Amino acid sequence: MKTERQNVSEDVVVVTERNKRAKTSNNGGEPIPFDLTVEICSRLPAKSISRFRCVLKLWGSILRLPYFTELFLTRSLARPQLLFACHKDNHVFVFSSPQPQNIDDNNASSLLAANYHMKIPFYASSFERCSSVRGLVFFGDERYSNGKEHKVSVICNPSTRQSLTLPKLKTRKRIGVRSYFGFEPIEKQYKVLSMTWGIYGTRDMDSEEHQVLTLGTRKPSWRMIECWIPHSLYHTYNNVCINGVLYYPAVNTSSKGFIIVSFDFRSEEFRFVEDTDTSISSYYGPHLINYNGKLGSLGSGGFGGIGASCTSITLRVLEDAEKHEWSEHIYVLPAWWKNIFGGECTVLSVVGVTRTNEIVLSLRFPSTPFYVFYYNTERNAIRRVEIQGQEAFKDHSVYTFLDHVENVNMKLLEGF
């Protein structure tokens, strides 16, 4: 295995060979050492990297090296952000803000500003098909051309402002398509899993053809894979990717039992976990989350979703996938809970759980001002964070994501 020093040395050779006549200097003096250039730039915001790539040819080469983009991403993991995807006027607008740190004061409020990144066309009537994975954002889309409907998936990188429409799925079944996005950490590959169903208009949709596409390859294309678990999908778009494994709820069409299907993006194999919580099929049912590296589901313990009217939050954690064993934790909410959100009928979206085990919630159709809520289960306290810069999206769909990182690798979304 190559050491970091070997990787740096090889990168220096590559840059030198490509840019023999270029010089990086400080006021006409000695060239700035390669190591120092990389170290300084790895601590800058992604917007600065985009600008510096245009300053000098040598800098552009350095800041596009795999070693640098991986170092920048590693540094970015230590400063996670909130990401906001806002749907309005057939476009998705992408913003981010720093992820607030834990506050000890009960019922505390704080203020953050959202930074605008980009917008992309998005014509689907439903805005549920989106997910954020390691700096990239995935959108499942339905577009119309010449009177015909086309199922299209789009991936964008807010840090580089790139967007990419994935190639057309190779399928005989054009009635329904469901796609999921994930990252495989061993080979460091982004992949998309897509499947089709052939019966339209039913609540459960039998998955049939299963295909995988890998980003960042020279000639990416869809590959058919086998799925030995006959299962039906839900209309609800509920999924999470944890350490290279995708999880989504389904029904085993053989046993008719509720299951959580897992798909390993590295081995490209399917497995499943039995789930006795039947409310997972509800639109406002429990939401799958990453709970400290384990699969978790978060809900109100019923079919009503987490909102102002619920009295407790139920967290279920998968402790043993082989034995199908789940643990359950019930958190009784304080009496003043319903006064925070401004209405008995308010239903909150589950954003996730922070590294300090705070449950993060937000409004799907926010009013002004726009808040993100942090519930501390240990102290039974809630704090709200006002996000400035979202005023134009009042009463429009807004999805909020935890732990967004800046990824300046431009090769990932180069055209097919």
UniProtKB/TrEMBL annotation:
Origin superkingdom: Eukaryota
Domain F-box associated beta-propeller type: 82-405
A Pfam family of this chain: FBA_3
InterPro entries given in the database record: F-box-assoc_dom_typ3 (IPR013187), F-box-assoc_interact_dom (IPR017451), F-box-like_dom_sf (IPR036047)
PANTHER family linked: BNAA05G37150D PROTEIN-RELATED (PTHR31111), F-BOX PROTEIN CPR30-LIKE (PTHR31111:SF125)
Official protein name in the record: F-box associated beta-propeller type 3 domain-containing protein
